[in-house]
Amino acid sequence: MTHASEHVLDAAIRLEPADAGGLRGQTHPAYANMVGPFGGIIAATVLNAALTHPSRLGDPVALTVNYAGPIADGDFRIEAVPVRTNRSTQHWSITLTQADAVTITATAVFATRRDTWSATDAGAPEVPAATALPRAPAVPPAPWTRNYDMRFVRGGLPDRENPPADLDSVTWVWIRDDPPRPLDFAALASICDAFFPRIFVRRPRWVPASTVSITTYFHADAALLAAQGAEPVLCTARASHFGRGYHDQAAEIWGRDGALLATSHQIVYYKE
Amino acid sequence: MTHASEHVLDAAIRLEPADAGGLRGQTHPAYANMVGPFGGIIAATVLNAALTHPSRLGDPVALTVNYAGPIADGDFRIEAVPVRTNRSTQHWSITLTQADAVTITATAVFATRRDTWSATDAGAPEVPAATALPRAPAVPPAPWTRNYDMRFVRGGLPDRENPPADLDSVTWVWIRDDPPRPLDFAALASICDAFFPRIFVRRPRWVPASTVSITTYFHADAALLAAQGAEPVLCTARASHFGRGYHDQAAEIWGRDGALLATSHQIVYYKE
Fold it and tell me: Is A3 within a domain?
């Protein structure tokens, strides 16, 4: 079912009731990756299962998504279980299966939040405005990249023919959904995975690589996300260590007025 | 059952077979916290359920532990299920219950690792040797602190009577098990949670605070951990953002010869 006015992200993460309390979704061709779907849209879909659950309490604080096996194009099933609900927190176990094989395991923590002392110790880098930078071209083998307006300050894919001598793993990039869409928890969860694996940025050659597990902490509440609207977010990503087939990635997502919307971490498999 | 020569950490994380494929463990008084057990030893115990499982493949790469509810002193049950085993990776779902109530949800990724290109982009801070620093006294209301030799370079608990004006959330501390014990994955998982909540370091007052979710990425393989032996590890911890009742914490665990053994992230609840 398509809805004429629906944003493609909403179409991609849409879930419908299935038997035995489960949910049914489908991979969306607009968010296809080189093999299978873009991991970010899967994280958003898994989160959406809790966001749309009738027992939901509060808003997401933490989300961990483990990519256990390849997801084939087509239908999938999600089970989202609120395994424990406390006065102000709720813990979710979520599983995505295809033909009874587990392809995603996930956990989420939701909470009702209230005002407390606050401080931001990290700082956003000083960068040009998004409008002062060119939009990066989409990467044709990765159709999902067409759904993001990305403007790199530094750390795009290196020129593999003439790589600079001082490659590092740091990226600063403005990102927004394209077409523009007001930011919410699902869209933010997806953006947190919208960085090229650090191994692609750090080395001037392509090797197979894929996210194995991602954890996102939501510092923004719903009101702060609403205030962000459809404006681009400033994202930073870097790796600490590459070795024996795995590297980490740490990302920050900055909103208007220096608000830190989310921090996100992942561990990435790479070959060679 | 006690074993005369057994390290107290091994006693604390020990599990025995229970009915229906589950495991049975007990909280250990030596790792008690102010309320309930120290979260680090629970993370180590949960990981140990997978480490000691007959179907285990490879070594831990990622571990996420969600603290869903309070753990009472006494017995608990763990279910550790290898939900998907691939050629070189294995995904675990692990649950800890007491009286049928879920108190911990967890996921883990194990993998067989092989040599690849490697690089460490992060850097350990320049600090004095552990032996040149005084051991911090244990914190009496938190018995678990007696099991760690901690030597702070910076960022211990501030003097709440005469706090410095420039408090930040950064800690650098040497840590080892006490009595000394060769480092392994379980001990490392526990050390990753052995930092005071950043809110205690950042503000000169005590407020209720507790870890809600922790994710650790293991960069070290078993051989690198074995080479570490019982030497102290150098740990760094900092927060990015405190707000609306939750703050993050990012930690690095450095071993001998500048080896990054693990990076670990958590989200912490705090009040006021």
Answer: no
